Amino acid sequence: MEGTVTQLTLPVKDQAAALAFYTEKVGFEKRTDVTPPGSYRWVTVGLKGQELEIALFPLGAPVDPSQRAWSREWAPGKAPPIVIRVADCRKTCEELAARGVKFVQPAKEYPWGIAATFSDPDGNLFSLSQPPSGAWQR
To answer: How many angstroms separate the CA atoms of 61 and 49, rounded?
Structure first.
């Protein structure tokens, strides 16, 4: 298969609060914000300069009937962390903490690099990952 991953869906309890957290504290940019007639608000955010978007999916949103059964199982804070590669993990942690982002694991050094994990207001996790200097990078 060939293709490109363009979007991840992240369940959130309060879409407006999640949008404010990701844009004002984490520094993502808002990509999409539409509310089609008779439907729910569709909001996506992403890192500047990157195509991948994160859809902030409000729990209980009216989805297509064919998706209702499996979307009922979605819950904030139940998925493994989304990993973001950064050039300087400690510096990024300091910047985010200064904006009110709460870390569940502070920056820690491992044989494979430096990592830290923060949580959004719904318990969804994001890990910042800095490869060791001289390591292979894309």
So the answer is: 29
Q: List phi, psi (to 5°) of 137.
A: -135, 150
Helices (H), 21-77: 68-71
Q: Of 34-43, 59-68, 83-92, where does mean pLDDT reach its minimum? A: 59-68
Alpha helix stretches (DSSP H) within the chain: 15-20, 68-71, 89-98
Beta bridge partners of 29: 46
- Contact call for residues 49 and 96 (beta carbons, < 8 A): no
For residue 46, give the DSSP letter. Answer: E
Phi then psi for residue 75, to 5 deg, are: -155, 140
The model's pTM: 0.82
Residue 46: both structure tokens together: 């992403």
Q: What is the pLDDT of residues 30-59, one digit of tens each?
A: 999 998 887 788 999 999 999 999 999 888
**Domains, in order of start, for the chain:** 7-71 (3.10.180.10), 82-130 (3.10.180.10)
CA angle centred on 130, ends 95 and 11, rounded to 5°: 70
d(CA 55, CA 61): 13
